[in-house]
Design brief:
This protein is α/β, with parallel strands linked by helices and 417 residues long. 30% of the residues lie in helices and 22% in strands. It contains 12 helices and 17 strands. Bound molecules: pyridoxal-5'-phosphate.
């Protein structure tokens, strides 16, 4: 089965003449459409906001595009806060959802006026001591055995994130008594989840909690954040999540549980990364070597340092061989990089058309948690990021690293050599 591409072979070959492979290519039109579809699905909720999970694709140009679509930024570190600030997202345009957080990161988040989402009960005092408590605070809830996670995020009761239910109630009491005036409630239960009902159930869980917090603690939660985690169809036979159905499912619950109660109006927030940019990013790499031993290998010029999801999670990423989209997939190969790690494989025992040296391979669905997870082990350098703009032009939005970048943090003057 094939997966469609938003560009043709001729365009990518032309791009590769100017920018050496490997490189990431992002499709602006597709990214904007995903953002619009999600906003449309929740348009019934006047306070709805998607805070794009910057960690998924922390490139300021992408965050800028998403800002233009009305999205905020979900940040988890100081540099991500700095990216948001650079593109003009400040104040409550930012949700700061971090864990095991250091004081200087909280300080920057509070300075920017971001919505701070605490990951632990003890962080109330930590924040108070190091920065001071802002007037709005949010807690991340970990439902433990009440919900199932999945392979990427783990089972909630084994995951390091968030408050237990008991801690949640204690925590809001503590905030109330400390004079905090505004409250949010957050959770993130699963990652890459393709079942839309999962998110409707998450909304039910948070609506119920908001009701109980109102009744038992006397606080009015002003927003619930359902987290990110909407999955994407990495495999050609999979279907995307029906966002309209999710929006309508959450609306039906809202109408029966929240509308007409003291909790109305309750704002819905989300912080997806993958579903916004994932399907619209492509890692383009050239075939260099062939090797036939016990198995047949195609060696490409990208490696796991450019995209670690297959090696790290065993994740499937579809591969198209440009110009051979309609050729029979009659070769079974492993597509490998050059890292001295045997899990440096983009595909294992994958049927592909016959690949020749110089063929361009496009690795699909790499627009989230792709380049961002890059690393430099084995002295491998992170590649360039290119944006295919709506008008068809291509802009380099991050250059490829050079050996000078790799050595930039070493002071060679102390060496004898
Ligand atoms: C707290 C938090 N929010 C949002 C996200 C984004 O998840 P996704 O890209 O799967 O939507 C993540 C992913 O790691 C996360 O940890």
């Amino acid at each position: 089965m094939q997966k469609p591409l938003p560009f043709d072979a001729a365009l990518v070959r032309k791009i590769a003449e100017k920018y050496p492979t490997p490189f990431y290519l992002y499709d602006e039109k597709g990214i904007r459409k995903s953002a619009r579809d999600l906003n449309a699905a929740f348009a019934w909720n006047p306070g709805f906001r998607e805070y794009y999970a910057v960690k998924a694709l922390p490139n300021p140009y992408i965050v800028q595009v998403l800002k233009e679509e009305g999205l905020g930024a979900d940040c988890s570190s100081l540099p991500e806060l700095m990216i948001s600030e650079r593109v003009g997202l400040t104040g409550e345009d930012i949700m700061f959802t971090s864990n095991n957080t250091l004081a200087h990161e909280y300080r920057k988040a509070v300075e920017l006026g971001a919505i701070v989402n605490l990951d632990d009960l003890t962080h109330i005092d930590y924040l108070k001591e190091h920065v001071g408590l802002p007037e709005l605070l949010c807690f991340r809830y970990n439902p433990g055995s009440a919900r199932e996670g999945n392979v990427i995020i783990g089972k909630p009761e084994e995951a390091k994130y968030g408050f237990t239910e008991e801690q949640l109630f204690d925590g809001y009491r503590k905030l109330r008594d400390a004079g905090v005036k505004r409250f949010g409630l957050h959770t993130m239960v699963a990652s890459n989840e393709l079942k839309g009902e999962f998110f409707v159930e998450t909304a039910r869980m948070l609506f119920e909690l908001a009701q109980r917090l109102y009744a038992q603690v006397g606080i009015r939660i002003e927003f619930v954040n359902l987290g990110g985690g909407i999955g994407i169809p990495y495999r050609p036979e999979q279907q995307p999540v029906d966002l309209k159905a999710v929006g309508q499912g959450v609306k039906a619950l809202y109408d029966s549980m929240i509308a007409g109660t003291a909790l109305h109006p309750l704002q819905i927030k989300m912080e997806n990364g993958r579903m916004i940019t994932g399907p619209h990013g492509f890692l383009v790499t050239a075939a260099v070597h062939h090797k036939n031993i016990y198995r047949n290998y195609v060696g490409v010029d990208a490696c796991m340092a450019n995209l670690m999801r297959p090696g790290m999670y065993g994740a499937y990423h579809h591969i198209s061989v440009l110009g051979k989209e309609n050729a029979p997939c009659d070769q079974i190969v492993d597509v490998v990089g050059s890292l001295c790690e045997n899990n440096d494989k983009f595909a294992i025992q994958r049927p592909l058309p016959k690949v020749e040296r110089g063929d361009l391979l496009v690795i699909h669905d790499a627009g989230a948690h792709g380049h961002a997870m890059g690393f430099q082990y084995n002295g491998k350098l992170r590649c360039a990021e290119l944006l295919l703009k709506e008008d068809g032009s291509v802009k380099m939005i991050r250059r490829a690293e050079t050996a000078e970048d790799y050595f930039a943090t070493v002071d060679f003057s102390g060496l004898k050599g």
